[in-house]
Amino acid sequence: MLKNYIKTAWRNLWKGRVFNIMNIIGLSVAVACCIMIFLTVYYEFSYDKFHTNLDKIHQFYFTKNEAEKVEKATSMPAPLTPAVKAEYQDIKYITRMSNGGTVVRYGDKQLEESIHFVDPDFLKMFTFPVVKGNTDAPLKDLNDVVLTEFAAKAIFGKADPIGKSVELNYSGEPETFVVSAVVKDFPPNSSIGFDVLLRFENTPTYQANMKSWDHHDHSVFIQLNDNIEPAAFEARLQNFVKKTFKTTIADMKRDGARPDAQGNVYTLNLLPFADNHFDTELVGLEGNSVSKIYVMALLAIGIFILVIACINFVNLSVARAFTRAREVGVRKTLGAGKWQLLTQFWIETLLVCLFALVLGIIMANFALPGFKATFRSQVSMNMLLQPVQLVVIIGLFILITIIAGLYPALLMMRYKTVMVLKGTVNTVKPGKVRNILLVTQFSLSTLLIVCTLITWQQINYFKNKPLGYSKDEVVSIPVGNSVNGARALELFRNQLNGQPGVVAVSGAYDNMGNGKDGSTRTSIVGFTYKGHDIRTNIQGVSYDYAKTMGIQIIDGRDFSREYATDSNAVVINEKMAAQLGGKNVVGTYLPMDDKKPSLIVGVMKNFHFRSLRSEIEPLTLVLSGYEMNYIFVKVRPQNLSQTFNMIERKWKQTFPNADFQGSWVNENTERQYKAEQRLSTIFISGAVIAIIISCIGLLAISFMIMVQRTKEIGIRKVLGANIAGLVLLLSRDFLKLVLLAAVIAFPVAWWLMNQWLQSFVYRIDIQWWIFALAAFIAVFIAFVTVSFQSIKAALANPVRSLRSE
């Protein structure tokens, strides 16, 4: 019996191959998209799940309830960890973690590696298994170094690294360490990535920082005892905060800080490490944090595409049902039962879905490299073979075949046998279900069109908004760890001196935007000035920084080599000047250092030294005390490409052992908005795919309608109706449904995108014309699709139409 069902199903599928090919194409495209999207979502939610104690690990962060805003920061002072550990017995493990880079030398090999300074508890908390060496206490001694398998192979090749000495240069002075252990390479879905582990006590400024509770420069992670509730422990931490940060709390209250519900203005809180990957409010580890909004948007679009494909499948099946009405009538007459007909149609649906699934997997395999590059995804097709994914795929497959196959089958079984055999089934008016499905399809498509237009507008706004400094003709070059920053700046400045395309050369501690090295730094200093608590961002710079970056000095002057005292001078921005009183601040001293106050020599115009997601903050430029991590070169606008190549050539001549990672500053600023650009790409891709699939279904429905109205069209043509009038008549009902879909989609799209825009300080206003344009696009696409069948029907010979009827 089953064999007969399959043979009959195959015969029927081949007979209606045009419809079935359309069905398979629409469904397979949806399957391919959903495989890649759902695997990406699964991968993002799998971050850090390999840690055995994941649910027990938390990260410290401070919350400051200031008068104007609430600040949260994960940076901690060095003395906090031993003090908290001594104060509370609730803590099982605790570790500090600071990141950096180092040059590793072994024999004639020299490599640049990433380095983490941690406490011994680090490898007890996090699951980075030791595969060689000391498994009990890998970081027992201060000169112990732990390597990953990848780093060990790069440095030592096939030789056993345990017990061997390596030279690390991470502070300007090489030091010798002994390899005590090798840990397994971390997986790609890890928030923590490193090549080398050292004891935290080896950080360059450790001794000085251990005496300061005001210097915050690293992260702290804790694992509580099994019987301790995180919320209860967090509440108990407040006694420690009130005792330890008494002065900070007093200064905040003096400046009008607003207490929280518990009456606290300064709190030490716990962030579950399991939430770290999706936390963008606090500073994410390694730059791997991603907004959950983008992941959920990806998931929603995957669901949209799947729903649209299922609706499309149903519509195509219904359209095919009208051409098979007589077949059903004959089968019923010959004694076919309800379950026999249901089984027959379900097997046909099963075969179509199976073809679509196989084709979709093949398409996903070919499209995956491009998808991974676009969305920075680490997914692979092997992930489909995991039990969870297999169960989901099989479950969705069965569900889709039942939903997509059941309604058309039930619809055909409801035909009255006598009417079917008389040939009157095609006069039945289209049902509400079909219209609801069509409206749902185009509502989702229009929603994606609106989201695409708004994200594109916001990104375009970011790109075109003046930032207050020159970004188009400045090259940013990361110095790296193999050379000293200040020395490299002087050497390279001399190399470029007199070059015709170069205007100015300077250096800075932090980059503008995100350079090719992917590193960003933030330094904030707080002090009391005239009875008020002042906080400012600090940027260490060299001479000619304002000239090189095109920053306008509006009061006073820039740093100058003619003034020997400028080594202790500062230049501030307007926002910082406003904190200090606003007017006549040039010539005053700031008590940033109790021993040696700093003289304000100039005020510069506000500029966006951070991304446009955040408001411009107070900024202070200083000449000394900070490493020159980046070199900036201002060039003339003529022959930009040739000048860039000359700069690269000069760099390689001057520093043959240092990589050149130079980039234009405008490229750096655009990299800050990769998340928004990815979201825009997601919406564009989703909208295009959704519209294509929807149009396939619309084409099938229009074909069904033309078949139903063949006699009507013939009569109208005989009575003198022209082609344009017929096309409009046949398309009108569809266009009404598409307009209704747009009206339904608009409020949802406005609410969603308005919520998204609220995350930006500088943002566009949603304009009415965006919705008008989205409606026009949807209606135009629908009209073109329907017109294809309408014009074909309108051009048909009315004599043949009436004779065939």
UniProtKB/TrEMBL annotation:
Membrane topology note: Multi-pass membrane protein
Localization per record: Cell membrane
Domain ABC3 transporter permease C-terminal: 300-415, 686-794
InterPro entries registered for this protein in UniProt: ABC3_permease_C (IPR003838), MacB_PCD (IPR025857), Macrolide_Exporter_MacB (IPR050250)
Transmembrane segments: 21-43, 293-316, 345-368, 388-415, 436-456, 682-707, 734-753, 768-788
MacB-like periplasmic core domain segment(s): 22-239, 489-639
Keywords noted in UniProt: Cell membrane, Membrane, Transmembrane, Transmembrane helix
Keyword Transferase belongs to the record: no
PANTHER family: ABC-TYPE MACROLIDE FAMILY EXPORT SYSTEM PERMEASE COMPONENT 2, MEMBRANE COMPONENT OF TRANSPORTER-RELATED
Protein name: ABC transporter permease
Organism field: Mucilaginibacter defluvii
